[in-house]
């Protein structure tokens, strides 16, 4: 069973991670001046012993149902989705948790930020969430190939499990009186991001240890979900880098 990956960067990352486990790569023929990135993918595929086939645009359009494929499609192995106990077995220090992120663009962008800021895992619920689809893969710009993914049946129960394991579970809430930067985020932490507008569901909020807000200025107290996640993950990374620098600096 394989999945479809579309777009130049997502295809490149799929090859980087899976190598010759990629079933095949389809590249658009007759791309003209846009052929150089596709030729690069062809060389990258051949270096990893991945079969390459040149096809016309119409065939790619049919395969991707009109998705923005940029002339590149790969048939890659299915992503591994972990159970929560499998994720926790690696002793994660930073986890991104998503509540009702139903837009594939937001989902993919959050995955990209999570990988960029060294999150050890991404947790989301089975229901009321964007699917693991080609649109999500493309929005992540290939970062999903490097992510550790965990889908759960009950998000509140998962948050209680994280807390039982000693993680600080912080939900982002624009109305909170606590600023995220005022928290000490050096300990293992889970950042919980809710849907834009409606925010975190009550059961999810209640399962968080703390609620915190980002330093937005009036009249805005909320941001796009993927932007909020990126800022929060950066704050965790910033604090930890500062802590490491201080620890390494001689007194």
Write the layout of secondary structure elements.
Blueprint: E1 2-6, H1 8-18, E2 24-28, H2 35-47, E3 52-55, H3 57-64, E4 72-77, E5 81-82, H4 84-88, E6 94-99, H5 104-116, E7 121-125, H6 134-139, E8 149-152, H7 155-164, E9 168-172, E10 189-194, H8 202-207, E11 210-212, H9 225-248
Parallel strand pairs: 2-3, 5-8, 6-7, 6-10, 7-8, 9-10, 9-11
Antiparallel strand pairs: 1-4, 2-4
Description:
This protein is α/β, with parallel strands linked by helices and 251 residues long. 38% of the residues lie in helices and 20% in strands. It has 9 helices and 11 strands. The longest helix is centred in the C-terminal third of the chain and has 24 residues, at 225-248. The termini are far apart.
Mean pLDDT: 93
Number of distinct helices: 9
Major sheet: arrangement of strands:
5-8-7-6-10-9-11
The level-1 CATH class of the largest domain = Alpha Beta
Q: Report the sheet with the most strands, covering strand number, pairing sense and barrel closure.
A: 7 strands, parallel
Shape: elongated
CATH architecture of the largest domain: 3-Layer(aba) Sandwich
Radius of gyration: 20 Å
Keywords:
seven-stranded parallel β-sheet, 251 residues, alpha/beta, elongated, 20% strand, Alpha/beta knot, 2 domains, 60s Ribosomal Protein L30, Chain: A, single chain
Concise overview:
This protein has about 250 residues and is an alpha/beta fold.
